[in-house]
Amino acid sequence: MTIEIDRFRMLNLYKQAIRFTHQVLDWTNENLDEIGLKECVRIRKMAMKIPSSIATATAEINVRNKYKKLNRGKDALQNVMPVLRDYGMEENELSVELLKLFNGYFGLLNRKKNASRG
Q1: For 67-98, how does the pLDDT look when each residue is reduced to its tens digit (9 = 90+)?
Q2: Cβ proximity of 51 and 21 under 8 Å
């Protein structure tokens, strides 16, 4: 039995999370003087938790742990958005789409879990 380690890179959820993180990193680089270095580092760390949690959740076999790690990513997204809005970055389509993809992925996992139960 072989386990495909890079499987998470094919997920649309992960791809959009990477795009969103790059967008946040670019925005913080552009507004570094207005925001301050310490706050930029905090925002970047929050944004980096999103794709990281998706990658670790995909590698999980236990469904409960998979949900926990995906919830951490969703929480990170929901925590970084108000901070970005406070500093002037308007909510964009990518963040809304990413939230929808999280909810869709949770639904997919739930359907798989219920189908395996019979």
Answers
A1: 899 899 999 999 999 999 898 887 778 888 88
A2: yes
Domain range for 60: 1-110
In whole angstroms, what is the distance from residue 62 CA to residue 51 CA? 19
Report the domain count for the chain. Answer: 1
Is residue 116 one of the residues assigned to a domain?
no
pTM of the model: 0.82
pLDDT, tens only, 28-53: 999 999 999 999 999 999 999 999 99
In a domain, 40, yes or no: yes
Pick the closest to residue 84 from 42, 33, 37 (CA basis). 42
Name the band, by pLDDT with cuts 50, 70 and 90, for residue 116: low
The three state secondary structure string of the chain is CCCCHHHHHHCHHHHHHHHHHHHHHHHHHHCHHHHCHHHHHHHHHHHHHHHHHHHHHHHCCCHHHHHHHHHHHHHHHHHHHHHHHHCCCCCCHHHHHHHHHHHHHHHHHHHHHHHHHC
